[in-house]
Amino acid sequence: MNKVHAVITGIAGYLPDYILTNEELSHMVDTSDEWIMTRIGIKERHILKEPDSGSSDLAVKAIEKLLEKTNTHRDEIDFILCATVTPDMQFPATANIIADKVGILNGFGYDINAGCSGFLYALASASKWVESGSCKKIIVVGTEKMSSIVDYTDRATCPIFGDGAGAVLLEPTTEKLGVMDCILHSDGSGRKYLHQKAGGSVKPASRETVDAKEHFIYQEGQAVYKHAVFRMCEVNKEICDNNNLTDNDVNWYVPHQANKRIINSLIEKLQIDPAKVMINIERFGNTTAATLPLCLWEWESKMKKGDNVILSSFGAGFTWGAIYLKWGYDSK
Ligand code: UT7
Questions:
Q1: Pocket of ligand 1, candidates 225, 288, 319: which has the most ligand atoms within 8 Å of its Cβ, to mutate?
Q2: Residue pLDDT, tens place only, 86-96
Q3: Residue 69 and residue 159 in one domain
Q4: 230 vs 234: CA distance, rounded Å
Q5: pLDDT, tens digit, for every residue of 191-232?
Q6: Which of ligand 1's atoms lies nearest the C-alpha of 228?
Q7: Which residue among 148, 177, 206 closes a domain?
Q8: Tell me: the pLDDT tens digits for 86-143?
Q9: What is the rounded distance in angstroms from the CA atom of residue 96 to the CA atom of residue 86?
């Protein structure tokens, strides 16, 4: 019998309407379009402004589009896996809130927190549920309301992040398509460079933690940057070597969108063809667990059935990894 692979059979994304431009940011903090474009490569990012709305609401919008375009009934979904660092609340899992809002009643769900590698970790994990025969239709969603943990008085972090969601439908196939290989790594000692200081069990929320702005993103940018370049290059090489892929064999590279300079370093160091690299950071910023599905969604019409696609990411944890997949369909 042919091996069962987990293949992406549909993709959808959602970005909230409000666009925060570098021009607007330059009136909020001491920065400029020129600095942000040169150092990060972001022009604008989408921000969820609606009151009482969170990451689940972004995910619901993406998932409703996904179900419609793939002609899938919500009752068919057995599992919803949500990658996020901005859950609606500490508990229950945002996946359960999403399932309730979409009306997915026959499945189970939980969240994965792997920083910017969240979607990659989630896709790798969900593919195992498909390959084992336990699940037939899984939704993997990366969704973030990063604006809820960004300090808009801190010029070192506020230009970087944006809000958004991207969701894929994952199904079994016996064709040689879908997820071929996954490599995941983590190193918890990297947490000192990128974390949220308060709000967890070590330092629960208090008046003091709020006054000290400890519920916002804390990042030592240069240290994270160096690790990101090194690990992204290393893991891209590792997955290509493992699968005997040269640059000629790869149709698309989908790197996490944290900083355009990190992606440019990847292109230079690995000597890959820039035309094959998906980049949309300029318009969306770093949407953390949503960057990879938002890239795939934007490039969906360009990808062909059987295309070799390499996803890679690096983020808080530290976490990093890569997935090699064969794209599952030609767009209609
Ligand atoms: O997705 C999760 C993983 N995260 C990442 O991969 C992020 C990795 N890190 C980065 O992308 C970059 O380190 C940053 C974009 C965060 C910062 O860029 P940088 O080139 O490393 O800048 P820096 O922190 O070394 O700061 C250089 C200078 C400093 O001024 P002085 O000390 O040299 O006078 C900063 O105060 O730039 C200043 N600066 C700014 N100036 C204008 C920092 N932010 C800004 C700003 N506008 N927004």
A1: 225
A2: 999 999 999 99
A3: yes
A4: 6
A5: 999 999 999 999 999 999 999 999 999 999 999 999 999 999
A6: 6
A7: 177
A8: 999 999 999 999 999 999 999 999 999 999 999 999 999 999 999 999 999 999 999 9
A9: 14
Atom of ligand 1 nearest to the CA of 259: 11
Using the structure block, give the residue that is written with the tokens 């079994």: 172
156 within 8 A of 174, measured Cβ to Cβ: no
Asked whether residue 332 is assigned to any structural domain, the reply reads no
Query: What amino acid occupies position 278?
Result: M
Which one of the listed residues 256, 259, 295, 308 is annotated catalytic?
256
Global pTM?
Answer: 0.97
Annotation marks residue 46 as catalytic: no
Residues 123, 201 share a domain: no
pLDDT, mean over the chain? 97
In whole angstroms, give the CA distance from residue 293 to residue 8: 11
Nearest to 79 by CA among 6, 161, 160, 18: 6
Domain of residue 112 covers 5-177
